[in-house]
Specification:
The chain has 275 residues and is α+β, with helices and mostly antiparallel strands. It is built from five helices and 17 strands. The chain has a five-stranded mixed barrel. The longest helix has 13 residues.
Length: 275
């Protein structure tokens, strides 16, 4: 059993304002990027994390590190034991360094402002207007990696990723990042993947919704929505009951529960490919 979602939020990154469509009611917090501080980048940690010349923020939100929210660049070990470097991780770090090292950036926030590692979660624009997340996605140096409490400008990011993937730029040339089929997901347990498949059925069991991609829910690929996710999909006017027979692209972490499963927490994790 499983679920999926469509792109919903339209944004204007340079003005830090997302313009919602009539089909997507949402709170101002979900739809706006709110301007924050201006800071200077002193060090590049990896392809999606930077250190600043000095800590910024207020109260419990003070930090000298920023995680470029909404994207996932190829990962470096960064001291983690037995961690194998992802393909193009060094290239992604070099790309971010070339774009931003020693430059001033405008921070803006689209939801939660700090992660559990004490890093600020922000969108970064150079003072000439260059949006760092958008540039990295357009160059194929990252993929979209969004969260239910930080959904601003995800639709625009998905559009940039799509173009880079079609042009086979950066990571999209490498098999490590290719879109997966549902019949090969068992080997990718505990990894973040993009999956394209056709939905066989949608079912509600108590407060949870499942999207099934195969006839055997005990072994086949499924997308699951818990009660909180169901409410968020409903708020976004996304009628999951209409997904049956549709081909979708789903992104998320592959878990094992009655076969491979992705827990979808917010609508932007699922893109409808059949119109």
């Amino acid at each position: 059993m499983r679920i999926f979602c469509q792109n919903f939020v339209l944004v204007s990154a340079l003005t830090f304002l997302l313009a919602p469509t009539s089909a997507l009611p949402a709170s101002a917090e979900e739809l706006r990027l709110v301007k924050g501080e201006i800071a200077e980048i002193a060090m590049i940690v990896d392809g999606d994390t930077v250190k600043l010349t000095r800590p910024i923020g207020k109260g419990n939100m003070i930090s000298d590190q920023i995680r470029l929210v909404g994207i996932q660049a190829p990962k470096l070990p960064l001291g983690r034991k037995n961690f194998k470097i992802w393909p193009l991780a060094k290239e992604a770090k070099a790309a971010l360094r070339k774009l931003s090292l020693d430059k001033k950036v405008q921070l803006s926030y689209g939801g939660r402002r700090m992660d559990r590692h004490g890093r600020l979660l922000a969108h970064l624009h150079l003072l000439d207007g260059t949006w760092l997340q958008g540039r990295l996605l357009a160059d194929g140096m990252a993929r979209v990696y969004s969260f239910p409490d930080n959904r601003a400008v995800v639709t625009e990011m998905l559009a940039k990723e799509k173009i880079a993937r079609a042009r086979k730029k950066g990571i999209w040339q490498n098999p490590f990042y290719r879109i997966r089929r549902q019949d090969e997901l068992a080997q990718f347990k505990n990894s973040f993947q993009l999956v394209e498949a056709k939905i066989l059925d949608v079912a509600k069991v108590r407060k949870r919704i499942f999207i099934n991609f195969g006839p055997n829910w005990r072994t086949d690929f499924t997308v699951s929505l818990n009660a909180r996710a169901v409410r968020l999909f409903k708020k976004a006017a996304f009628d999951v009951s209409r997904l049956k027979g549709k081909r979708v692209r789903v992104r998320g972490w592959i878990k094992s529960f009655n076969g491979p499963m992705i827990n979808a927490t917010h609508p932007e994790q699922i893109e409808v490919l059949d119109k």
